[in-house]
Amino acid sequence: MNLNYNSLCTVFIVTYYSEDKIRSCLDSISNNFKIIIFDNSGQLNNKKKIENSYPNVNYIVSKKNLGIPRAYSFGLNLIKTEYMFTTQPDVVLRKNCIDHLLDAALKYPTAGIVSPISYHNNRYILDGDHKALKIDKSNKKIIFDYKDMNKNIYEKIPEGDLCVEGVTGTAMLIKRSFLIKVGSWDKKIFSYWEDMDICARIRINGYSVIKARKAELDHTAFSSHNLDLNSSVNYFRNWHYSWSSYYIRIKYKQYTSATLYLLRVGVLNFLKMLIYFIFFKKKYLTSQAKFYGLTASVLKRPSYFRIKN
What is the model's pLDDT at position 166? Predict the structure, then answer.
């Protein structure tokens, strides 16, 4: 590790009933970096356990679940280092990952976000690494349902550093001053699409989003919570993904795409609810979550759904 880097970067991790995963993540991060954990599940008993095991960790317990964007915004205001590294409890960083990200950030002065290469069960998957979006900088919008991008260019692991339009929120090294200039995270979103939204605003404002080839991590998707919460988290995930997918299209004035999404997801899941109601409870609840989340977004209701503890 470059010991000079610990003064440049603070790690910020949002957790939600993640005690079964968080230690593997923390073990993969050099103890020279200051780490802040923001616990959205309000688990006071974890604070003492984690802080005793990891002296470089400040464990903050939230009184209520703030979601992802509000928690990250809290961290953005709390952190004083030039860079903020955000990641998730179900991530394990490979050797010197943060160092490689900082190398790239310093190499590319216009980089607002630098992200590592992500592997899922040792496989490289394009949509698990970055998103094939098109960002129209002149008109300040994301173009959704983009069909012209040649994904074959990106399906293989990049041979070197790569400029992209958007990266997933699995892990991001963020230049704080750039993000503050473009407006931080959108607090209307509770979960999902907040990563693409900040990538879009970074790009629209003339900064770059970089994939740093030497920085790597392993990610076990949708596993940051305890296993006994799977059913509740699955409902939550589908509800908020539908809410945010419609909201983000309206935000960027992509009304045709929003209408198509409404017809495709709304009508399909309404029909599935009718079909699955009696015999397939699990499938019914998944379709219900998608339909209810989308309906709330169309009616301009807040992203209100929460898991009842």
Answer: 87
More confident: 141 or 190: 190
Report domain 3-219's class: alpha beta
Residue 135 φ/ψ region, left for φ over 0, alpha for ψ in the -120 to 50 degree band, beta for the rest: beta
* Model confidence, pTM: 0.91
User: What is the rounded end-to-end Cα distance, in angstroms, of the chain?
Assistant: 40
**pLDDT score, position 30:** 94
CA dihedral 132, 134, 137, 138 (to 10 degrees): 170
| The pLDDT of residue 153 | 56
CB 303 within 8 A of CB 244: yes
CA distance linking residue 167 with residue 271, whole number of Å: 33
Could you write out the DSSP letters of every residue in 294-308?
HHHHHTT--------
- 107 pLDDT above the threshold of 90: yes
Token reading at 216 = 């790597």
Distance CA 98, CA 33 (A): 9
Tell whether the model's pLDDT for residue 278 goes beyond 70: yes
> What is d(CA 174, CA 183) in angstroms, rounded to the nearest whole number?
13
What's the mean pLDDT in 74-90? 96
Q: Which helix (H) or strand (E) holds 49?
A: helix 44-53
| Separation between Cα atoms, residue 205 and residue 169, nearest integer Å | 19
Query: Dmax over Cα atoms in the chain, in whole Å?
Result: 61
Angstrom distance (rounded) from CA 149 to CA 143: 11
Range list of β-strands (E), 17-161: 34-39, 57-61, 83-87, 91-93, 111-120, 130-131, 134-136, 141-143
Nearest to 306 by CA among 229, 196, 197, 223: 229
Q: How many CB atoms are closer than 10 A to CB 8? A: 17
Domain residue extents for the chain: 3-219, 227-298
Q: Measuring CA to CA, which residue among 255, 271, 260, 262 is closest to residue 297?
A: 262
